[in-house]
Specification:
- There is one protein chain.
- This protein is an alpha/beta fold and 292 residues long.
- It has two domains: 218 residues, Spore Coat Polysaccharide Biosynthesis Protein SpsA, Chain A (Alpha-Beta Complex); 50 residues.
- β2, α2 and β3 form a beta-alpha-beta unit.
- α1 packs parallel to α2.
- It is globular.
- The mean pLDDT is 94.
Length: 292
């Protein structure tokens, strides 16, 4: 990679958590960049009513704010931000969740990790920033690897950091991800089949299929609280079956079409059974829990 001037497009989407979003941007702009690197930020405000856009414009006037109508959710909002940045042809694109607080060396570490992991084909790699809980320090978001299972190729596990070395992944959580221009040329944007979840997993798995390597930073680069909890979700057996199933097929759960696209694309020849199994398990567990 040459030392010519390089530009990074930071992509975020947010909704009605002004203070959280402002804290994320504050940490972002405190980052130390290598020489000849510049940041531009594209943020989709998906219909916030708490004054998020106004506060961002006041405190961070260089941020390009794109207004949504409240229907975009994570993957949709990130896709809109990504599309706006792709039109301007950046060297790198940084996915960043607005509840992530980056260490002030995060971007430097992401860039250095990218430099160190050029593939055998000469391609730059996608770099995933490992995130930890702000209180416990426990890993919360990272790269993802497939478990070795013949009949379920989308059985996944989060990658733990190992001996201060970068670890290769199959896909990733989308909380903090540096994507080089060369990868975007091959992959394009987040697939429109996904409105909220699965868009990051799909993007990484498509990258792996095309020979684009994904590496996790050797060190924690920021903090982000793990928010995929059982209580109140479709896995909460204390909820009625009707409520659980409604949550399951909602945008923030596993919408049937998005889940079908993901399974058909990545789960192997057993994909119809894997697709149906998630819904069947919730129905059975709901019926069983109600009978006791």
């Amino acid at each position: 990679m040459s030392d010519k001037f390089k530009k990074i497009a930071v992509l975020l989407t947010c909704y009605n958590r002004k203070d959280t979003t402002l804290a994320c941007l504050d940490a972002l702009y405190k980052n130390k960049l290598p020489k000849n690197y510049q940041l531009d930020c594209f943020l989709v405000d998906d219909g916030s009513t708490d004054g998020t856009s106004e506060a961002i414009s006041k405190q961070f006037p260089s941020v390009e704010i794109i207004q949504g109508d409240g229907s975009l959710f994570w993957a949709g909002g990130m896709r809109v931000a990504f599309s706006a940045a792709i039109e301007k042809n950046y060297d790198y694109y940084l996915w960043l969740n607005d509840d992530s607080i980056l260490n002030d060396t995060c971007l430097f570490q992401l860039i250095e990790c990218n430099k160190q992991h050029i593939s055998k084909q000469g391609l730059e790699s996608i770099i995933v920033g490992a995130m930890a809980d702000p209180i416990t320090g426990k890993l919360t978001y990272s790269g993802i690897r497939r478990k070795k299972r013949l009949f379920n190729q989308i059985s996944m596990e989060r990658i733990q950091l190992l001996n201060n070395q970068a670890v290769k992944a199959d896909t990733m959580n989308g909380n903090c991800v540096l994507i080089p221009h060369s990868a975007v040329q091959k992959l394009g944007n987040i697939d429109s089949a996904f409105n909220h979840a699965l868009g990051d997993y799909d993007y990484g798995l498509r990258a792996s299929k095309l020979g684009i390597e994904i590496w996790v930073t050797p060190h924690i680069v920021g903090s982000c609280t793990y928010d995929h909890v059982v209580k109140g979700s479709y896995n909460d057996i204390n909820l009625s079956l009707k409520v659980r199933f409604k949550k399951l097929i909602s945008i923030k759960g596993l919408p049937p079409y998005a889940w079908m696209v993901y399974c058909r694309r990545h789960a192997g020849f057993m994909w119809p059974f894997i697709w149906a199994n998630r819904y069947i398990r919730v129905i059975i567990s709901g019926l069983f829990s109600r009978s006791h």
